[in-house]
Amino acid sequence: MADTRNSGTIMGDKAIAARIQQTREHLDRWRAILKEPERWVSVWFLAYALLGAVSSGLLPILLPLMIVALTNHLSWVAYVMGGFNLGLLTSPLWGILADRKQLHRPIFFGGFLVLSLALAVMPFLPGIFTWSGLSLLAGAGTSAVATMASLFIVEFDPQNEWEPRLGWLQTFNGGGQVGGLLLAGIFVSNFKAGLICSALALIPAIWLGAKGLPTAAKHYGWAADVGDHMRRDLDWRFLANFGRPELLGGGLLRFSHHLSLRGARRLGDVLHTRFGRFLLSWFAVAFGVAAFFAYFPVAMQKAYSVAPALTSSVYAMAAAIALVLYSVGGQLSGRFGAGRVYRWSLILRFLGFGLLLLVFFLPVPKTLTALAGFVLIVIAWPLQSISGTTLTARLTPVSQGAAMGLFNASGAVATVVGTFLGGPLVQFIGYPSLSAMALLGILIGWLMGHGLQAPSAAPAHPDDLTAQKTQQS
């Protein structure tokens, strides 16, 4: 009897000890998680967060509202916002200039200065050509900072630290975007003060950059073009699984220096492949939604009776949720296949824009219906972005670097062209044209996205195209 009690006591003590050990392991794991950012985060990441607050949070709300309020010319919104998107396409220029002349810091700080000055003078110099020119400069400044921010990591830090540092960099930018959207709700009634405060907010960014950026590159035993190494060596499966902000849902700031001119030279090699069909699908979707994202704060106010402050607040909450959904999208892509998730995301966006168009034809509550549709549109973006990135890596018959350049270029060019086209459409047809254009582009993209990747499809390799050409010859 005593032996039985002793054995029971011993087993109980062992169970308690095991629980204590398990609790300690959990605490150690949480301590490691909480300390993890210290390894990868630098002070100058806060400067990139301020860039996200201004370029991805405040400007998309304030600029369209200011233009319409001061001019009553709806088409001007498309031209001014199109100028900003056009300025973002200068990223290859900054990357080439930095690689050849080693002007990383001057380009980084110069980008902040140009963006700040453009925003500061914009409220005082009205006019379509002046605003478009200043918006172009603001986009170019934003592109310069975004390009250098990524290059500072891949040229100044060892290769095994690129991915976590880039992940945290884009997360800071996403947090800044959410904060900027919340601040935009405060300034919607005073656009001049909002733009001036946006310009002033970039001054601390320059100070943070001056304090935290390294002064000279640290070489780690590899030479040649840094951009080429980054495009070739980064694990795109990893990049598809961390949250990153997307400007206006169009994704022009994903990795600006990956808007590769070299990748565009391979366009003819991939058009006849499944990857080429995916690029056309991506182009159609980006083209379709571009005009809406140029006009959305104005359209939500004028067509759907949603106050600009409410629009920016809802967008901020949706963007915050979206940062979490990137990891969910990566898990879904791994479980069900990126091709399926890509088409599911298009269905969600189709439903969202369908609700926006529905209010013009049926007696439904405009405000609630429009907000529901808008949330669907924003929430669907992480699924579309991650599945699109994954499909790019798996379907490409060329190098993944060239493929990423084509992928980003197709979305960027489609966004610029679609934004400019939105001006005449809104001017002559009205706000329903924005939703109709988006629905048409998404439908075409969804149809072209059918059968892109079978569940058992293996990732494509750079040598596939060479083998295919050899067999054909």
TrEMBL record:
Transmembrane segments: 43-70, 76-95, 107-125, 131-154, 166-187, 193-210, 275-296, 308-329, 341-362, 368-391, 403-422, 428-448
GO MF, one example: transmembrane transporter activity
InterPro entries on file: MFS, MFS_trans_sf
Keywords: Membrane, Transmembrane, Transmembrane helix
PANTHER family attached to this UniProt entry: C-METHYLTRANSFERASE, MAJOR FACILITATOR SUPERFAMILY TRANSPORTER
Official protein name in the record: MFS transporter
Record organism: Acidithiobacillus ferrivorans
